[in-house]
Amino acid sequence: MLTIFVPEITPRIEYSFNLIFHEILKMDIRFESNLEAFKSGSGAKISYCAELVEGALNFIPSGLLNQSDIRDIEIEFEEHNGIQCPFRVDKGGMLPFDPFAAAFYLVTRYEEYGTLHTDQLGRFKADESIAFKKGFLEKPIVNVWALEIAGLLKDQYPDIEIPMREFHYISTIDIDNAFAYVNKGVLRTLGGFAKSILYLDFYRFFERIGVLMGSRKDPYDSFDYITQSLKKFKTEFKSFFLLGDYGALDKNVPHTSKLLQDRIALLHEFGEVGIHPSVNAAKSGEGLEKEKNRLESILGNPVKTSRQHYLMLAFPDTYKKLIAVGIKSDYSMGYPTRVGFRASICTPFSFFDLTSNSLSELVVFPFAVMDVTLKNNLNQVPIQGIKTIIQLIEEVKSVGGTFISIWHNESLSENLEWRGWAEVYEKMHAFASRAVN
What we know:
This protein is α/β, with parallel strands linked by helices. The chain has helices at 11-24, 35-40, 99-107, 130-133, 141-156, 185-198, 202-213, 223-233, 258-268, 279-284, 288-299, 317-324, 371-377, 382-398, 421-436, and strands spanning 2-5, 29-32, 45-48, 57-59, 77-80, 83-86, 168-175, 236-241, 272-275, 305-306, 329-330, 349-353, 358-364, 369-370, 402-408. It folds into 3 domains: 2-156, no CATH class; 168-180 and 218-436, TIM Barrel; 184-215.
């Protein structure tokens, strides 16, 4: 048991220390606010106060974790092991910065509350984050700091038991649009033909005819390929289906489609199926429960997990809406335009709401890479994509974290612009599976 001295136990202190020691390091901790009792106690000890305490590992607080509101913060950085670490503190402690305040700030997404740095969809811009600006977006530095603290504890208390973290891999698929041509209805089909003619896209014009006549398979219907890959590599798997009403950014086939329901049932055999809330539901808040109910009706069981369509994530509103309809875990934590670690962590963690200064029951599963990001935002070709993925896997493996990827059924179609990306998917599975074993 690790004993931690803090003069005052606040919700933020409790959350941050549990994040580092319980969630990441899998250690048991207890807090002590009586200094004399702390000094007289035995075993491994950490002090988190401005005054140094003899016989303990001392970390100097920056003050953030003793606050209870959200305010503009002028963050000072200190270079440590080649990383610009936030919340520099005066010398005297074990580290030249406050790792517990830094972890809290990054994981809770403090900088995104009330931000004006958003794109046309209202999403926080990755390039405005301190992780991107300071060059550590592609490194799960909260996990790195946790392991460094574990090393300091081991040096001071050689007999302390710190469990070894094991690398974990979760493969996920988003189904924004299950089929390119089938089950689209007369108006959408005629509109598709007209668009192909307007843009002289004769490939898609004749491809659509072939699919509708039954002589060709719908290019987005890559579900058999997905399941074959899952059988081959035996990875943990999650899928997320968009079941919102048709709109400018929500273009899946109707939720009543028998073909769509068959594909949902197929992927459900290989892992949990979650809801992919529509852009309309994310913006207005309306329709979320209806979409969740649709999926529950198809599956015949409660839906507890989600990922936002277009990664429409705004703090704290998105998570509060999910909690209100009974969602227990969310996989939206990541950027659409950059790979890496939006919350600077590669371990699932509980969401802390800064507006209420309290812990929630929602568990956040951060992802590291998305297919669309690699090809469309970073303009990478398949050979570059797999190199980027391997680098990210190595980062996660080095800290015993959880590597989560996002793919789409369209990107595995080997059709037109996605030719060659199915091989990237296969190589990612193979490399991650070897890292697990």
